[in-house]
């Protein structure tokens, strides 16, 4: 009886530790892989087919909403934009594409940071300092920025004992006026 209670308590502690720490561990791995341009590491942390479908769906809904509000946008224009967007996202949403975007963003951020430091201004504006994890279920969590209500929400789904970026909720994002 004592052993079964001890085993149950140990399993509960292990599960609780995994539940609390696994999203942070996974996010750290994704961030490190992206910063290093590690294509294999990025691929281990992102479900690219699901992510591509999610982003395509978000863009298409924004395009359709814009077309419904603007009578000058014709169906042919939407179809052409839809086709171009599909091809663009297929090319961008790959491990190599993500690594390149992170490298470009990192280089631009470093240049901007150096410029700001030379001017003697504060480098951090606080807008992107804190991201919050919201648990949806045992198999899903969302990463959002509570300091920026126009940022996308990244949706991670459980993959074995780890997590993979699987979708993006861009409801609040203003894509060139396509809200």
Question: What order do the helices and strands come in, and which of them pair?
Answer:
Elements: H1 2-36, H2 39-45, H3 48-69, H4 75-92, H5 95-118, E1 132-137, E2 140-144, E3 153-159, E4 162-169
Helix pairs in contact: 1-2, 1-5, 2-5, 3-4
Overview of this protein structure:
With 179 residues, the protein is of the alpha+beta class. The protein has one domain (2-169). 59% of the residues lie in helices and 15% in strands. It has 5 helices and 4 strands; from the N terminus they run H-H-H-H-H-E-E-E-E. The chain has helices at 2-36, 39-45, 48-69, 75-92, 95-118; strands at residues 132-137, 140-144, 153-159, 162-169. A 4-stranded antiparallel β-sheet has the order 1-2-3-4. Strand 2 and strand 3 form a beta hairpin. Helix 1 packs across helix 5 and helix 3 runs antiparallel to helix 4 (75-92). The longest helix is centred in the first third of the chain and has 35 residues, at 2-36. It is elongated. Residues 115-128 have low confidence and may be disordered.
């Amino acid at each position: 009886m004592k052993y079964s209670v001890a085993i149950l308590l140990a399993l509960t502690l292990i599960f609780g530790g995994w539940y609390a720490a696994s999203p942070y561990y996974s996010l750290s791995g994704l961030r490190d892989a992206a910063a290093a341009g590690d294509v294999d590491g990025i691929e281990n942390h992102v479900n690219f087919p699901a992510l591509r479908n999610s982003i395509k769906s978000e863009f298409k809904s924004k395009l359709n909403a814009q077309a419904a509000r603007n009578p000058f946008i014709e169906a042919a224009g939407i179809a052409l934009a839809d086709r171009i967007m599909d091809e663009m996202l297929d090319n961008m949403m790959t491990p190599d594409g993500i690594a390149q975007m992170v490298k470009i963003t990192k280089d631009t951020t470093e240049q901007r940071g150096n410029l700001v430091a030379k001017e003697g201004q504060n480098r951090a504006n606080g807008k992107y300092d804190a991201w919050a994890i919201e648990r949806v279920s045992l198999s899903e969590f969302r990463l959002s920025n509570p300091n920026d209500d126009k940022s996308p929400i990244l949706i991670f789904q459980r993959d074995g004992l780890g997590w993979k970026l699987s979708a993006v909720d861009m409801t609040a994002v203003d894509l060139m006026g396509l809200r």
